[in-house]
Specification:
LexA/Signal_pep-like_sf; 10-stranded mixed beta sheet; two-stranded parallel sheet; single chain; 12 strands; 5 helices; globular; Transcriptional regulator with XRE-family HTH domain; Umud Fragment, subunit A; 434 Repressor (Amino-terminal Domain); 2 domains; DNA binding; alpha+beta
Length: 206
Amino acid sequence: MARKAKAPIESPFKLKAWRQERGLTLDQVGEALGMTGQNYGKIERGGVELRETYLEPLADLYGIPKSALMQIPGHGIADTTETVPVVGYVSAGAELALYDQGQGPFDYVSPPRDSKPSTVAASVKGVSLGPLLDEALIFYDDVRSPVTADLHGKMCVVGLEDGRVVVKQLMPGDSGRFHLLSNSSEPPLLNETVAWAAKVTDIRPR
């Protein structure tokens, strides 16, 4: 008796197959969408919904119709104003520990006013950002861009050359470097090489 051919399985992980077929890494796809590879990995696994804003650029990148993305089981289109993922926490030294791929987000919170599809949150543990901000939430847009003049003097999420991510007030230093000032009694970081920075758009005490 002839064996019956197995019907193709409509998998929620089709996003991963499409990416691997094209030889792309999570970081490459994340960069094309203006997010980290870690965050795109969460979308790929179905832990975070695929927002409508990302449909067109992702379809263009993979060379598939936009409608194909909308039909993936388990990948609904998230309302960009409904919730924001908590992607990490700020601890001693105002250092932001981002959840590793596969760990988070552990929570979703209501978004700040004027949030974007790239808006994310981080929780503050302790007094690293000042005693009044213990247990607060900070919000920023997870778009890793070089420092621009409008960020000078602002509290920012800052990616350093050595891979650390800190939350500090960013001030121009010497020779294209930056001074990073703290809201607490911690000493400033002087003349640091900054890879990227994103302005803290909102702070919400808990």
